[in-house]
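Why do we care about 3D structure at all? Because function follows from shape, and shape follows, mostly, from sequence. That is the central idea of this module. The next example makes it concrete: a single protein chain, its amino acid sequence, and then its structure expressed as tokens.
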Amino acid sequence: MFEYSLSTQKENFYNITTQVREAITKSGVTDGIAVVFCPHTTAGITINENADPDVVRDMLIGLDKAFPDRAEFRHGEGNSSAHLKASAVGSSATIIVVGGKPVLGTWQGIYFCEFDPPRNRKFYVTAIKSNSHRKED
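And the structure:
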């Protein structure tokens, strides 16, 4: 397992694709899966477009509209909307690994999603070797 640190200054999606590729390479796993995990309740992990930065901007706007701050929230820290966003996005992503590389679509990137900045965050990557053998027809 590989641990990475991230200092977040604003609510944003931080591209961590490079770190995930690095962890897969260091693991030595050539075929299997990689799991990226966020151990925080106000942040998450997602896979989405990495070509047009407006997609991240639009996703943040959409999440703000879906999970606005509300006066009736009772959580003492005042970050209930961040908890809701993190639960909706999820705390992990699983990526197929083939030939020692993550299988991602042309436009896909892996993101650490910060919903309660500024924070010093961690995320973890583990790669698991596939034990299955494909039988050729």
